[in-house]
Amino acid sequence: PEAPHVVVTHCLVDIPSAKYGNSMQVSSQSPRQAQLPMQTVLLSRNRYPMGTRTLSHALPLCPQHLRQVGVVGKFVEFFSPGVAQLSITDRATIANMCPEYGATAAFFPMDHISVQYLEQTGRDAEKLDYVTRYLKAVALFRDYSNSSQDPDFTQVHKLDLSTVVLCCSGPKGPHDRVARVLTSFSNSMSLQQGFKGFQVARERHHAEVPFQYNDKEYSLFHGSVVIAAIPSCTNTSCTNTSNPSVMLGAGLLAKKAIKAGLSMKPYIKTSLSPGSGVVTYYLKESGVMDYLFQLGFEVVGYGCMTCIGNSGPLPEPVVEGDLVVAGILSGNRSFEGRVHPNTQANYLASPPLVIAYAIAGTVRIDFDTEPIALNNKGKAVFLRDIWPTRQEIQAVERQFVIPAMFKEVYEKIEKVNERWNTLNAPSDKLYTWDPNSTYIKSPSFFDGLTRELLTPGSITDAYVLLNFARYLTGRGLNPRDFNSNGSLRGNDAVMARGTFANIRLFNKFLNRQAPRTLHLPSDETLDVFDAAERYQQAGFPLMILAGKEYGSGSSRDWAAKGPFLLGIKAVLAESYERIHCSNLVGMGVIPLEYLAGDTADSLGLTGRERYTVVLPEPLTPRVIVDIKLDTDKTFQARMRFDTDVELTYFHNGGILNFTIRKNV
């Protein structure tokens, strides 16, 4: 009674709507409305088997298990004595993977281990005491061994930690757990082109492509590692929640590898991009940074790198040789074409395993029976010879990961970057747009915006894409100066052209992989952007027909802004990745979902039809609407406006327009 509402502080809860997808919603200070009931619980118990590295298995295990359970749009709370065995950074990793298993939030209530972590990272003792007493007073502080403290949950799902084994995930999805990468890759070679297969003819499974790099001869094969990255997301973790055990483990592995006389192929793109300066600090202080550097893992920056395609060009044989080469990274995205358009196989692993596969130079290796490589004396070295023990890692962590380190780094945050501090920032209230800039451009989202609400109308046709080079060359830039889509995300003209630019995009109109589509009125095959432009010039609205989990692989806001700019008015899919569905709503694009049992195939839809979506009055959440075709066929689908707030955004033409009208 004394606490009508509770503000949760210092609890490990990850809400990806704020971090990944709904940046538009957060920046507009709009409410986050959720459906109820939505609390789903996973019970963890027993102990991890000896020898497993938590982050080697947590990454694929949690998405796989929770996707099977079905937690899309739910709150997931972890409880029971098994949680107490997880370090605070392990819990942060699992919570941080919310987008991978589709939950709205993943919650680990605070306990004594949480307090220990905050003490270790230099938090104020008086404030910690206040927070702890407050959370206990409102029953949010948990003793995981005391079952009487467990709330009543709507659902309980059990995960036995003793069943967890060392594993990775891939080659095309973070939720596709694989116990043996060698077996996974070999099986995928022959499978039909799709979510797991590469459809390589059996006689080409052992193809070899020789090439020169820095005047030396090398050869590439199917499964050759060409990208090895330890990025900031999940395994090195975001901002302050870096996981010292896996990072120090990677550093100690590098140290042992160098001392054993091992090296890496120079053509492999290696990078280390921590989520926090603290990581760099303890890697240097512990003496392992030099060994990482010798293997090629130098700090290239902080924040998003490899996971958003910032690896740059690869050796020519990779592009021209038609090989299924591999990327290995400790991030949380392995969707085909996202890491790099030319690495068809991408596996997620812990940082130590990233280094191991980089040294091996291939994912087609059995570390149990095959040497990782020959050293500089021609002697075979096995992974077990250089793998650091848990005791070695813990000893280094206790010595070098101390509160003073965190305090020093945090105190320097506003002072350490001289270039940033010397920037001459304008004081104007309104941003001054530079018409010559290709990086930041005034977006067209508000063109034609009126103060009055316009009644949403109906819809009609097909598909969309890009011509990236034409725009930039027209601006006087040479191709080598284009940079990446990620770096140009402040330019809507570039991002619209890059929206469906993935060369692995499979379009049923073409029945092959290509970032192109069929312009139906002319029957011409065009880049998607060019086709969309033609449709818009002719005044035709557009739709997308899709399958299951549409939007998986990119929960960023531009994955919805781009289609909006291309003139897409609706998407019709079997199901949606939750964050992307929310972003479509935020841009005023209608997410339509087939009714249970219906698919494009079962309804006989080819995409060549003309579609009219009839909007009833008044619109209500999750209303079923009629879709009429120009073939005189009619079927029904559900509009995925799940709340009244989402309907308000739609009536305003999206959350951006809603924010403008609200503040004018």
Automatic annotation (TrEMBL):
Query: What chemistry does it catalyse, as a reaction equation?
Result: citrate = D-threo-isocitrate
**Which species does this protein come from?**
Salmo trutta
PROSITE patterns, per database record = ACONITASE_2 (PS01244)
Q: Lineage of this protein's species?
A: Eukaryota, Metazoa, Chordata, Craniata, Vertebrata
- Its protein name is aconitate hydratase
The Aconitase/3-isopropylmalate dehydratase large subunit alpha/beta/alpha domain sits at: 64-361
Q: Which UniProt keywords apply?
A: 4Fe-4S, Iron, Iron-sulfur, Lyase, Metal-binding
Tell me yes or no: is Protein biosynthesis among this UniProt entry's keywords. Answer: no
Top-level division of the source organism's lineage: Eukaryota
The first-level EC class reads lyase
NCBIfam families the record matches:
PRK09277.1
- Cofactor(s) of this protein: [4Fe-4S] cluster
Does the UniProt entry include the keyword Iron-sulfur? yes
